[in-house]
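Model it.
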Amino acid sequence: MKDAIGKLVLMGLLFTLVFFSCNREEKSDPQQSDVVERYLEFKTKMNAMNASMGQMSNFLAVIGASQMRNNGFRLKSAHGDSVYTDSIPCDTSGYWDYYTCATVSETDNGDGTHTTIYDYGDGCDEFGSLTKGKITYIWKNDGDDYYSKVLYEQYYSYGMEMNGFSEYTFTSDGNSYFEYDSTNAGKDTGSSPGVIFNWSGTSTGKDNMSIEYDNGEKYTYTSNYSNTWDNSSYTVLEGEFTCTSEPDDYDYHYLVTLPIFYNYECSETWIPVSGIETIHYKDANETYDFIIDYGSGSCDNLATVTENGETSIVDFGELIYQYCEDAVSDSSTVNLKR
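Modeled.
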């Protein structure tokens, strides 16, 4: 069980591993302007984060695992209609023994909210990287409604520091459950099978974070969006996002103008398979507008970019290796193939 839950925690932390550890490389296609090329680098990193299911799943894993431990989350077979609510049929004594160097604690606040903290202190070795600071989840669950605010306090890993928050709501459609993966039984504790969380419903999210690298580069990222998703797909219904570079004094503001759809059944695809976003760029001297279209549902890593009335094809399957080769080779959770 430790292995399964540890991987769920790693999903959320891949926001650090993939998005923030990418290196700048040479440009991919001379047909595109510098403004578009810079944005494609940013989107490559963001799409890699989404391919890992993002922090929303990590927050739900924290809630689900806590409910499971306290007999508050129902076990349902994925292959039948039986539902068990009597007890937890496995050993949970080593529940908090994640594959993490953080000190993990959980508190019932007495007002319907709970607090789960990952405290890395002055630093420890997390997945081969020095990690410091703290991540705090303040969350609550009322029936099918879930809420969480994730606070980053001087959280440092992979050469950058994050401060700020992410805030989420989730409403289950009644089809959320967890089950046991008996094939993993006995591999770590000797008696506990793996745990698989299955979520289905709608959600909203907000982010407001600052990110500073060791080399002094600093960015802010904000978002406000709504989604619907289950274990096989994820759709951004509406979304507004900004990314601002403080050193270079430019920002991108982009909107979802046709729902962005990720199909997890496309095993070699790590970007949306359909949807359109419109992007507005500005700096001290110019403004610029362009469009990215992810297609009509085909399982590929291709998209088209339209700027100044001309359209070109972008292969994100190549860009992930151009901008994030080290992070891709280090990640075993995200399936990113050429």
